[in-house]
Fold each of these.
Amino acid sequence: MEYQRDENDIEIEGGEMADDKEFLRGPLLVRNRKNTTSQIAIVGANSCPIESLDYEILENELFKQDWRSRKKVEIFQYVFLKWTLALLIGLSTGLVAFLNNLGVENIAGFKLLLTNNLMLKDKYYQAFAAFAGCNIVLAIAAAALCAYIAPAAAGSGIPEVKAYLNGIDAPSILAPATLFVKIFGSIFGVGAGFVVGKEGPMVHTGACIANFLGQGGSRKYHLTWRWLRYFKNDRDRRDLVTCGAAAGVAAAFRAPVGGVLFALEEAASWWRSALLWRTFFTTAVVAVVLRGFIEFCRSGKCGLFGKGGLIMFDVNSANANYSTLDLIAVIFLGVVGGILGSFYNFCIDKVLRAYSIINEKGPIFKVLLVMVISLLTSCCSFGLPWLSQCIPCPPQLAELCPTAGRSGNYKNFQCPPGHYNDLASLFFNTNDDAIRNLLTSRVEKEFHISTLLVFFVAIYWLGIVTYGTAVPSGLFIPVILAGASYGRLVGNMLDDLSDLDVGLFALLGAASFLGGTMRMTVSLCVILLELTNDLLMLPPMMLVLLISKTVADTFNKGVYDQIVKMKGLPYMEAHAEPYMRQLVASDVVSGPLMTFSGVEKVGNILYVLKVTGHNGFPVIDEPPYSEAPELCGLVMRSHLLVLLKGKTFTKQKVMTGSMIVNRFRAHDFAKAGSGKGVKLEDLDISEEEMEMYVDLHPITNTSPYTVIETMSLAKAAVLFRELGLRHMCVVPKKTGRPPIVGILTRHDFMPEHILGLYPHLHHYE
């Protein structure tokens, strides 16, 4: 048999890297990659084999027969079920987001109330012991869940969701165990006082919920309802996961329109109008669910849970008038935010690489690292407010000053009666309350410049060192916190020159920092407007986001793109790299090629499946089945396994397509949920059966996407990505040659592969 490259091939030998610079720049897994037939990437802290998803619609005889036999009522059921699942995703994600908020607010509330009561009694050492003790217990709980149950739940999860929607299937990234750990790990991690957000994990949670609901039923749990079989394919699951990601953003920020735009701009690689409608419907359901729960909590039945409405940080009361001089300040905020954001990404990249060395040593080391970071965070949160001066309480306040309980924002800390500690008001709060304090107008709250500077430096670096530990950790909230403190700091410095309120400067600072790290514009703009309920700030916010993104793009990529690359996930970009224009499709195809005949011997098929990890094989028709050798199509590995298990073999080499069509149904070849399909080990083929033949025509995709061998690699890459392909057949330009030159897969378009074959193209990067 001949050999073909597939997405499971690997080019890089294992062992330690010879070049230290490559470790600082390349994917983390290159250091310990073994020579194997499976392409691998980092999931959690482990190197795992990955495959591509089958987003292409396969057109073989069985699937055509299935579509022809569908009645109008079945088509209606399919459409109805799509909308029903979108509704269930919205309801489930909204419920999980509410429970997440409830858990965080009550756990953090109990911790802060206990510490505050001890502080009021001047028991400062006991207060620190209680504060740090609660934090470290919660941190250990979050880390243990991540380290021992679902390592894939660590981090924000947005890079993994983005990779899945690009067509990359990595183990456990959307598994039920990951969903469980993501929910509870996020509650414990945020409640432990880490400088992390629950927003990124909510996106991953929404995607996990969507994947769980879209599994297409389960024979194990007797959920094999006839309707559910329609969703046993990657294409429909991809659409559901897109809805889940949008629902996660909508639930985290209470920004339904922003959720749709986030999925469109950042998460999804393929989009169409029908999907826009469903994601919008899903996020609308989330908004209604959250609104209902918040109204329920206004009666005080939710413990220490905050009573804020759907608008999380209402700054609508601040003065939004701005002059030409203010626009110059906005431009300055954008430039500085872009520089700070790109440096933030640079530091996160280096910290993640350093942590990978620790995390690889085992789960116990992951937990120990989390404990160290927890202790550092507790020391900063409790120790730094002692550097701040006490400020007299503003007169005619609606709320009590200083705060007697947890929910107020004027923390007494060590100050005398009638005074509050402004730095403690930021550190001794939940992250949401700290952001709310920074976005309030000067009339309601005053912060010293020194306070804002200390808080900015602390949050900036704590956010960097915390991300990459074994806890579910979002980047949105740390970035908003750092950006808002830096923006308010600039607003305080320009107090005499500007008409703009310092709270609005804080909002613009947060926008500039988000633009500098995330590199999103439209979705961030809408999310921030929905968060703050301040439409008058739209023009300066658009300006600051555009400037910060432009400035940051000159230094490095967005934080999620960096993490995707670092994990070794073979992400297909929307554009082709410049060096691809110097090559044609046949230049990167490896051979010789492995093919099957239209009617193939069982032993040959079994041998090929055993010695290769390929997932697609060309089927060639030869005389007497055709006048000359011709490409019949492409057959999938999973379909071959199902066919072999059914044992529809013949002793003669004859076509038996009608027998196979009568024996099997299309849903027999549908993709099983969570990798529960037929495996090679499940086959029991006797020696006699090995010499028999099987007809591959009924399961062969007779219309695979093909390109001519002289097509530029750049054009082939764009086509591959836009169509969401797993395999692309390369056919010869001239007759008289074999009907197929080779197969292009995702791996063949990766820079590491192409530049490894043609090192002289490095200067085109």
Note: The mean pLDDT is 84.
Amino acid sequence: MPPAAEPLSNSRHADSDGEDAARLVIRTGGADLVATLLTAASGKHGIQVLGPRLQPPAANCLRHNASCICDLVIDDAPSDAEVHYSVERSRDIGRAPVWHSPNLDQANTLPGSTVVITGSGEAFRDIEPALDFLQRVRPRYIIHHMTRPLAAGPLWDMIRNGPMTRDGIPSADYLAVIVDASDLRAEGIAISQALSWEATAEDFVRNLGSNGRLDTLVTCPNLIVRFGTEGVIYHRGRDACDPKLYYHPRKMEGERRSGKDAQMIGLSSAFTAGVALGFADSNPPNCDRGIRFGISAASGLSKRGFTHSPLDDAPDYPIAQIMESLALDRQHAVVSIPSARISSGEKWSIFESVTGDPAELARQIITFGPEKALATCPIQQFGDLLTVERSEQESLRAVVEAVNERLNSSIRRPTSIGIIGSAGSGKKFTASNLAAHISSDRSTNRLNYNARLLKKDDLVSACHAIRDHTASGELTIVIFENFEAVLEADSALLNDFLVIMRDGQFTDRGSVHSLGSPLMFFLVNHDNTSGTDEPFPPPTPTSPRTTDFRPRPALDLSLLMDYLHGLVRVSGPNMSSAQDKAYSVRRAIMLRHLLAQKHPHLIVNGKMNVEEGVLHALLLVPRYKHGLHSLEMIISTSRLSGRNKFDVSALPPEEQIQLHVDGKIFMSHLRAPKLVPSLREKLAEGMFEVYKKRRVVMCKNEEELKALETDRSMRDWDELAPELKESTRAQADDIPRKLRAVGCFMLNEERSEPLVKVPEFSVDELDMLSEIEHERFNAERLQRQWRMGARNSKQRTTPFLVPWRDLTQEWKDVDRVMVECVPSILEKAGWHIYRMREDVEMNGTS
């Protein structure tokens, strides 16, 4: 069995006189903590646990076995009646670990026994007992939580090919090695931290093999790399398969949320205990089950921290609480890391991997909210700002890290952040929420200035105000809007601003003053119109000035870039390029926020009540002329007071809508949107052939067959009347709506988990979709002025304008066949039906 360490907890309490008192408490960690956790789960899982033999806690135990000392503090606001402690400071003693074997005389080791090893064999003071132990036991499973130095020493050489069978043959699949990402980084493996899960995964793929000494670790059959309690990468080094990334969609590595996760030690041991329960619970071993148990155990310990033990009136690990509630983790999503694509230099996006049609996802965001619709997508939140795009997440995260680094240092100069985007992209909203995120635990002052209106004297006055606020000791946040005016060639303030940004100084009447260390945001309106990626011209200002009709002066952004400590490019609600697939999702997040903020009464039972046609128009109109401002104006001028649904009648008149979008396109989207013409024609023709075959099957005799030959609706597609063709095309246009009704969508590419391919509809789904199809048929015929009567397409009469319940079974079956054929017809056209696998619980995001 593995070695054991005994961390020391120094817990501070208040004595009866109100003074702080220190108390020394001894708690075992490492292998003994693993054994204690497994013992607590032994009854539930039917296992027997033999832990390491340790010396009793005494002075000599501290001298020989202690590995670290921790200072604990009592949490200020416990969520229950228990007293909880978190780790304020931890110091490693640095003593070499000692191997502690279990007492094998206590029980017979069975052929399916599992050995859990913690630590590094190379670091043990005496490795021979460990080697002898493994020779005697010959376990079926080995789980090794490896610490530094990695992949070194005779113990690793003995187990790296897997446990030996009784016949002396190694079983590679029965070995699992757990490594903390911090240990890989310490060994020279360059893996980014808390930037984005994509960046972490890409660095892992590209750099894992960069240290040749770790080749045996890279080729380990089951390598499990921990990234705190927030993520895990599972790598099968001997198989030609992609690694898997388990990630928390709302947290990055090492991130605490709302102060609910305690600073804690022993998380690796808790994870190892969970892996042991799942990994060795099946044949062959189940790494996915082990990882999910491990994440659950480590997360439980992180949330609880140390609790107060009544046994000795001192802090202790919450063993019983963790193992009693242990279940397979469902708060982390999993995705395959595309190693080949990453190795070829391609940038990878989890958002694109785990979502389907962006337009359909955008509808879900508005209807059900981003938390539910984006349950498996990595979302990063900064104040009220939600971001799903990797590039934006990484730039925002880098800015936060850079700002915190400077604010926590002794640098007495400004920190300058650039926020660049087109007019109306939401730069001020981004800057305000970024500032709120950074200053969440600081006392702040905020100042806003419009750089376009500033004169020399105004800037000097502003600098004095900033200086006075920074002198108070509070964090001063300054936002300069329309800073592009300062960057124009004829600006008289450019040099003054550059000196402020570079040196933190300004001049007033010949005297030089220090500005202090404010946090300054520079908001620049800038359209990227230099390349073909920009599909639309710059927007026309809402209130044009004379200067707006002149050519806009070119901006030299390089002057600004030289003095910035961070930069964020804001895309806004409009499509930024032909490759921008996420614009409808960005727009949906903005729209949901606006509606929830200004019209919360539209949310009924967690669902935003917006008519489908209005959703189509707001989400799919190509461009808002003034960006976010146009979207806000359409919402603010809609008649929504006292309504419980946002329908077409609530929208402002078309003339007013025309001020903010292309009115004709917007109004066309209020009606049912049409498919791409080429796809529309393919699907309509395919559905028409299915209809014709069904009509032939329905014939009961030769007379009915002959009658079909003269039926105008049974002609070949090329000879079919235009009105009947258009009717079938409308039926094809309705496919996406029907798919949404059963939680599905269509994609023109093959995808894997977490998207699940739907080759056919279930019986219940067919029943529902058949009725929806008949309702669509009735609506279409009534809109085209058809009426009840004998079937006659020339006279526009049909006997089927009746409710579904009154339709004969024969014709109900026609509707059923027309929806049953949809998956196969889409397949022939190169499209597939998918639905999102829903197995991520979002109740743990707070």
Note: Residues 1-19, 529-550 have pLDDT under 50 and may be disordered.
Amino acid sequence: MATSSYSSSSSESRESEASVSPVQLPPTPPPTSIAIFKSPRESKSSSSKTSHWSSSEESLPAAAFYGPLDAKNPLLVSCDKEIRELLGFIKKKKALATSEEQKHEFHRRCATTLFNIWTKYAPRLPPDYYNEKLLKVGDSLCQIKEYKLALLQCYRRYLQQFGDFDEHKEDVNQFKTVFFPKGFGDETAELTFHVLSSKNICSYKLVCDNDANLQNKESVSQCLHILSSLRLIMQVALPQEHLCWIIFNGTIYIYTICRKLMLIGLSAKALEYLLWASMCMESSAPLLSLRYLTWRATLYTAVCQCHYDCQTSIHGEAFARRALAKIDELRQLELMSSSKCQEESRRYYREATIKMAVMIFKRGVFESRRKNKAVFRPKIRINLKEAQSMVWPRTVTERLLDELFDCTASRFLAVLEALSDSSRRILQTGPLVTDEVELRDVVSELFMAGKELLILSNVGTNGKLDFPKTFFLEHMIERKNIISVCAAVKFTKLAFTYEEWGLFESLAGQLIQFLQKQDIPHLKRAEKDLILLLAVEPLINIKKNKGLIFPLDSDKEGQSVQVYLKHIARHESCVRSCGYSEDIFNLAAILHFCVCVPNKGVQPDKDIVVDIISFLWQKCKLGIQRINMSRSDFSKYSHKISTSKWIYLLWQISEVIHCYQMENLDIVMVAEITLRLSEILESLGSPRRKFRKSADMSAKKGPEEFPGTPKGIPEVLPILKRAPVEQLFYAYELLDKAIAGMNWNFMLTTLSDGSSTIDHCYAKYSQDMNGSTYTPISANSLMMDLHLELIHTQHRIAVVLLDQFFIILFCLL
């Protein structure tokens, strides 16, 4: 995954880094969901004046008319009461709005109520109290994830007192003139900084709500614009030491957005902003203290990871070495100012140093083994199979691990990072893509080291793997020789990707046995991931290779897991045939179990599910094409449908894609699967329209009563047990979901020229005086054709359903 080194090592540590909470700057109040630090002056009064109000509103008595501006002022009490009631209403009723109409009505009512409150009280409240109330209400709305309401009714309302500013120009002088005409010493300056930052975060949250995966290019552009706006705010605040909380919050916001960009493969765009955040942490004197070292190291590792993602590993290593020097400078300064180094300080330095050492090792372990073209004498290679029976350290890689790291946990993290490649998906299996044999040897040595570290640290007296419940980070800091289960799962997935099949099977078997006893959501997800990888492995490893690395000592764990997988496949599909195709149907059954069977909302890894669905569809498409569908006799057609495993596989794939999040799938594949299954259901549901020979007895008899069903094939598919009208209605629902998914994809996807794929129109080009030609603008005609075919098929089935309805109604009358 294209995130920082540390975040990619374990899910527990990744979550803790994303919500950074170091010791706060005094005397700042507690953090909120929008700002980690708040200005120490935000609660003070402001002398700024708001815009002019209408004469009718000014005729009403102001708050000062009722006495001192304290907690007993009736106007202030009334305003606070209405706002509390609104916030309470939002918290109570938000979860009850489930349908789109209910959500729309809920948001309309909340926006109207808040607008009326501001319109009613704004002219009568003191300007300083009004501005402070805008901020507090906006922050409260952000805490309950009402970002649009906070942005429109609070933060932008606050910014209306300032003039227009062109954010696209990023003019620092104009920015200062518009928002800070009285300078940064004014009491309103910190309030304004807070509003500007919160406005950007609300905008980012709204972008993610509308396009979670940032599929639309416009969404990516908005994220980059938000990053530029945050950079401008930090650039203005950086020279002011008392505004260091703005810098710190800005780095967290930048890291959060850049991490999203890195996950979708846009590390090149995120790099410059992460570099800026790192440099700001170094340039702000208050943020150079030890309490912020952990966060600085996280930013450093994110920059290094961006360089590795962009295939510029030399720059990643160079930046890591520079960061390591900066950390050492801070250590030297602390030693000069203090005679003794406390244990807490050692933990900070150790954590940061390990992160940087891992980033250096990630490139150094390979570069040190590259063949020197100036030397013609070949290097002597060791026999890796023989080396596995030797004592640690056995290879150059293991000796390098001993030199850089002093405990099993940190060494294992270095192995994981060296093997990780953000450009490869888990099911993109194969060895390291290089012509240099020495580099492939390094990969094998890393797997040897990882296996040995896992055995030495986590194998108990009974010969089985066991894992603690503490975080991987704690193990590294405390120099413990133990590895977390999440790190072991990632190592197992890497063994699958690099085709170390023997090691993968033995590790996956023991890990699944351990994970089945756990009840934590992210561990149940890891269990499903490993189950799916074990199921797909026979279809990828056709030659039954074991790989270079020896598996763990054989025991009954792997056999019991295989029995468990066969039980799932038998329960889900009742497929008991032999041959090559058995693995395909077992995989489909296990995928159906992992995705469609409810288990506390836990779903497997998105990339694994998407790749397996694509793999199954390619196999299924070829199988269906081999079936000779006779359209002359309904009975023969129905018999072939009921006795075809490929039709059953098609139905299972369709069930999975409609249970899963469709926005993560290839919409063209979804449309093809839906059309193919709908065609079959339409033929079964309305035989009179499709076949020349369609006797009523044949239609009533049904496919399940035909003799000669081959062994291992279900007697009847679940969908074929339904009545013809139910089959047609099921096909109509599938088409409706596919059309909705296609519409959603059209909304998110844009072409290279920026136009939407749904905007398919024709432009007129005049060639001469006598005639004109019309040329289509859109290049994506395949999706449009599939969209039209889906609509046409749905309309055709709807007509058949209406005919059936009128026939039933006529019979009743």
Note: DSSP finds 33 helices and two strands in the chain.
